[in-house]
Amino acid sequence: MVQRCNWALTGSKFLCDYHDNEWGKKTTNARDIFEILSLEIMQAGLNWDLVLKKRQAFRNAFDNFEINKVAAYDTAKMEELSCNAAIIRNKRKITAIVNNAQVALQLRREGTSLSEFIWRLADNKSIINNWEYAEQVPSKTLFSEKVASELQKKGFKFVGPTIVYSFLQAIGIINDHLSYCSFKNY
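^ that's the sequence the OP posted. Answer follows.
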């Protein structure tokens, strides 16, 4: 019998599919990491199911999260995004995503990718937690505070320790699938 983390059972098919096929799996592609970071920023104050339902609209609006393209957005493009009813139209979040694409390009110019930068902070290893209950899973940790601080030092925006913790879970640096979950990979 397939068992899932409790949160994967509380929303739509999008949420369940995301849990089963993406969440907690090691992600190293810089574009994919940028997409997840951007979606995590959009999710702040909202719920992940809503963001997943709008994911294709986000991809369409943000040129499939191609870092080079997003980094080149000008004021007119950001205004267009803030009027796009298919996505979350928060101007601060949109501005942060464009800024973060520019910072990711700067990392590349310095000889590293967004993926390499993030994974290096984790010594290129996943942290596998063995929580029994959803209530045990923290919303932030000292490690997410450290990563948030390092991202902020580089110039990333909208990357507090709670958003970063969720981001690290999403890309597999932190594996918080509950101990009984059929999708926990060791």
